[in-house]
Specification:
By secondary structure, the chain is mainly alpha-helical. It is built from 18 helices and no strands. Helix content is 65%, strand content 0%. Helix 2 (14-40) runs antiparallel to helix 5 (93-118), helix 5 crosses helix 6 (127-137) and helix 5 (93-118) runs parallel beside helix 8. It is globular, with a radius of gyration of 23 Å. The chain starts with a helix and ends in an 18-residue tail after the last helix.
């Protein structure tokens, strides 16, 4: 290399190229999704019912008095969630909403960092901006910010729970999942993993915190029994709008009840096999892979078979998707990522030229995405089981130490 070549071809560390490309794009996506799309809002507004409930709570007015016959977003948090959300009403509505969007955006970046740390990567790795880019390119993150929903905080609680559970800091793990359960009990299915791993102390705070917060909020609420009498029955009903669960799609497309029930049973059966196989062959040799994949199976199946599954719940599958960086991952196959596209794409498939076809794709993409992802994970694990049976090694435990993620 000549003296001139040093100036014409400046040397750049190859490990920095990913960061140089991904960070500017990722940060601009964060700004666009939060500052522009988030502040612009949408006809679907999850924040106003929460703000109005918080304001009513602070002023000792009824909270659970909505008309559930409408298709507008409803306030569905328990009294414990109302208590935690009540500080929002100290601010005026616009300031409260913008503050909530800003904090949510920071929380989601924090979740990306914590996921990288969970898989042995630090902030200097190109994977960190890549994860941020992936987060903010999805429908689940975009609509969480646009609709101004609580989901980002649920993801933070989930990731913190997984990290602390692996570190055996059981009481603190229970604190984080307990706080999310106090507002949205969607992570309740993960307590099955606590039972499977016999980390009983987690249950003390995971169950205790919602109980204590409800006990504190109950006498402060104007109508706490209406949550039990009116809201809880509504939560158990399946609706045919904004509902990507199997029952929701069944009602919307007019499927027979027998077919809806058969599909729900099939996905539960696949989940049972996947959980058993992961517990039997991965829990001791690679606890991280066991925990993150099992959490994804539990949540993905819950989204499908419960009475209500909404597309932006998909962000809770991020920990399972991160396993693609780890040997033994069940999502190292193209059908799984076709399913990820379905349940996380921000693309709109409505077509003016082929209206029925586009409508079916648009309204069903989240359901088929979750379904394909769960089927791909099931088949990946099933084929391993069949290969092991053919080799007659089913009775042999894996003793290999956990392998590190790919170098990044």
């Amino acid at each position: 290399m000549t003296v001139v070549d040093r100036y014409l071809y400046p040397r750049v560390d190859p490990s920095r190229i990913g960061n140089l490309i991904l960070w500017p794009i990722s940060l601009l996506m964060v700004i666009h999704r939060s500052l522009i799309l988030g502040v612009n809002g949408h006809r679907t507004d999850d924040f106003t019912p929460v703000y109005n409930a918080a304001l009513a709570f602070l002023n000792q007015r009824p909270v659970y008095n909505e008309n559930y016959a409408t298709v507008d977003p409803h306030y569905l948090y328990p009294p414990s969630g109302t208590l935690l959300m009540s500080p929002l009403a100290i601010l005026d509505p616009d300031t409260a909403r913008w503050t909530f969007i800003g904090v949510s955006a920071v929380v989601l970046i924090g979740c990306a960092y914590l996921l990288c740390r969970l898989f042995g990567l630090d902030h200097r790795s190109w994977v960190f901006p890549a994860v941020v880019f992936f987060f903010y390119s999805t429908e689940t993150v975009a609509h969480t910010l646009i609709f101004t929903n609580f989901n980002g905080f649920v993801l933070l609680g989930m990731v913190a729970f997984l990290i602390l559970m692996l570190k055996r800091q059981d009481l603190w793990a229970g604190v984080f999942i307990g706080l999310t359960l106090s507002v949205k009990p969607i992570l309740g299915v993960l307590l099955l993993l606590v039972l499977m791993n016999r980390q009983w102390k987690i249950l003390i705070t995971a169950v205790g915190i919602p109980l204590l917060l409800n006990a504190a909020a109950w006498p402060l609420s104007n109508d706490p029994m209406d949550f039990v009498k009116r809201t809880v029955p509504y939560l158990g009903e399946s609706r045919d709008y904004y509902n990507s669960s199997i029952t929701g799609m069944g009602q919307y497309f007019g499927m027979g009840d027998w077919l809806t029930l058969l599909l729900r049973i099939a996905f539960v059966a696949m989940a049972v096999f996947g959980l058993w196989f992961l517990y039997r062959y991965y829990r001791r040799s690679d606890e991280l892979l066991w925990l993150t994949t099992s959490s994804g199976i539990l949540l993905g199946t819950f989204f499908l078979v419960s009475s209500l599954g909404q597309g932006y719940y998909s962000m809770l599958l991020f920990p399972m998707l991160m396993t693609v960086l780890r040997p033994g991952s069940a999502v190292r196959n193209w059908p799984a990522w076709l399913g990820v596209y379905g349940c996380m794409t921000f693309d709109v498939w409505v077509s003016k030229e082929w209206e029925p076809f586009g409508r079916y794709l648009e309204y069903g993409k989240v359901t088929w995405g979750w379904s394909l992802l769960m089927i791909a994970v099931f088949c990946s694990l099933l084929f391993r089981y069949l290969d092991m049976r053919r080799a007659d090694v089913l009775g042999i435990d894996s003793v290999s130490p956990s392998k590190p993620p790919v170098t990044a």
